[in-house]
Amino acid sequence: MQGPQETLATCATSRLSGRRSAEAGQPLPRGYRRRGLRQLTAVGVALGVGLATSSAMATSALEVPDNGTQQMARGGAWVARASNSLATYYNPAALSGLQTGLILGTNVVFNKECFTRLGTDGQPAQPNIPGVSYQEVCNENAGTPNLIPHFGFNLRLSDSLGIGFTVVPPSSLGKITFPELSDAKAGSATVPFASPQRYMILEVDGVLVNPTLSVGYALSDQIRLGLGLVAGLGRLQLSNAAMAQPGANDTRDSVSGDVKAEVDVTDLFIPGVVFGALYSATDQIDIGLAVHWQDAFKGKGDITATSGYWGANGRLSPDGGTVAKSTDTGADLVSVEIPNPLQVRLGLAFRQPRDGAPGYLAEAAERDPLSQDVFDIELDLEYTKNSDFDAIKVRVPKDAVSIYSGTAAVGSVPENSDIALNMKDTFGVRLGGDFVIVPDFIAARAGMWFQTAASDPEYLHPSPIGGARFGLSGGGQIRFKPVDIELGYMLVSLQEMDNKGKGSITAISGNQQLGSRSPYAVNGGKISGTAHIISADLSAKF
Fold this sequence. Notes:
Blueprint: H1 2-16, H2 34-53, H3 55-58, H4 69-73, H5 87-90, E1 101-117, E2 132-134, E3 137-138, E4 146-158, E5 161-168, E6 176-177, E7 181-186, E8 189-194, E9 203-218, E10 223-242, E11 259-280, E12 285-294, E13 297-307, E14 322-325, E15 334-338, E16 343-353, H6 369-372, E17 373-384, E18 391-395, E19 402-405, E20 408-412, E21 419-420, E22 426-438, E23 442-451, E24 469-480, E25 483-498, E26 506-508, E27 517-521, E28 525-541
Antiparallel strand pairs: 1-3, 1-4, 1-28, 2-7, 4-5, 5-9, 6-9, 7-8, 9-10, 10-11, 11-12, 11-13, 12-16, 13-14, 13-15, 15-18, 16-17, 17-22, 18-21, 19-20, 22-23, 23-24, 24-25, 25-28, 26-27
């Protein structure tokens, strides 16, 4: 097996010899070579495939519940309880009944996602090198913690009016990095080879936050309303691979023609609105409603494209391939639009007040369950309109971004590199509660949640996993006035998806006669994932 591989590697190295990184300022010739154009078409549109992977970071569509230790440890069942400064983002109606306070904390996420690529026969998929077959691959940062911090402050201005400010990111599972090379079978041997998920994802990283300013007002002892303005901002860094020139009858990957694309895009203003309502039917029953709407992420940035990144033997090319950057002709030439689906939550909470504790219907009532309750339990229903997430738009000005072979420009990124998605609306249920062990001192809590699948198995993707999601959580709270310390843990299970090798996602390619797509699907197989989330908060009331 090694003989043919080394022969192919020698050919690839010879073909790539003499190439150098692109130099800035080279003009684009009118009569560029067809092969170069095909490679660049693959690069430009491959961008969109990587961006599809970032949906968990850019939208609530595939989040887990929730930022905030109290929220997460209750399985996200919190919209009717809303008892600390993070109500500013999750239900601002509660601000009119909260004592002035602040909160600072973080979720620490350890995520693992694994993909096995299968052929249409249900067996491990094979590239075009005889005897080689792909094996299961998992993200290589599975043991590295992802920190997702949050901050909130609220001020009670009067018995019926409160305001708040929070900085809360999407409650995603954080950065995902898959290897460029992974183990493959070559006969009875195990060899390093281009990783099987590369056409869908190599890396997704970035920072997305949603600074929110909200106001809550009590119309009466029973009815409270709230409104918040969101001014999100973010930066996303993404990479994946594309095919160069597959033939119409190809059924296996030709690794040596692959192109690696890396994107860096930023959006400094993502406006949004959160509306909240609370109805206290009695001193024991609260009904909460929260509606989140936010504009799409509309980032601008740059592309780095590397052709010949992998050699014909499936390993990395010794010279690193040929690099081209959009910054050679101008900054921020790439525009990317990623939708943020509408989200609605409705919660019903039952609380047992402690004897002698003031009820929430009392004049100037304050929501402090640790001092006022024996226990509470809440059930939330959630709807996310993921069908709005129909496509990712990737646009580049005509002939603005060139690709080079050596120092010669040979093509340009196509203007329209949109990627159509096939997401569907999701429904979720959250159940959680607290039990106060010692009043005004210590409480324990637990919760669970479930969310329906956001995609069908034929559209499975290594990250994010669109299958149904389930979580179990628990935690506690201890008070040393004026400071509360809260800890929580959640186990997240991402349902295994298996399409038996019959996927529907094709790779981007440079073959324009095939519509710049591969002639076969690259997502056939099965996928699963888990995440462990540890959360800690410090809060104070004044």
